[in-house]
Amino acid sequence: MPFQDMTAAGMQDYCDKVAPEPGDLIFMGDGGVVSHIAIFERSDGTKVYFIDSTDLVGSVTERSYPIASAKFIRYGRLRIITN
Questions:
Q1: Which pLDDT value is given to residue 4?
Q2: Which of 83, 67, 71, 60 is nearest to 3 (CA)?
């Protein structure tokens, strides 16, 4: 049955690793442990811009981190699952 583990870390199982394009997922966290997912918007070569919602700002916003941030664990594209 699809979507057994709907945690941020579990969602990695339903994605292929990719070089990100707009709309792909960014798996984020600390210490290599995924705890958050954002939507990749773009990169300007120094920063990665993404859309997400966190308690830090209390709404959906565009944010960015330096491209080398350890918070970025991997990028993924959801696989299409059919029955």
A1: 65
A2: 83
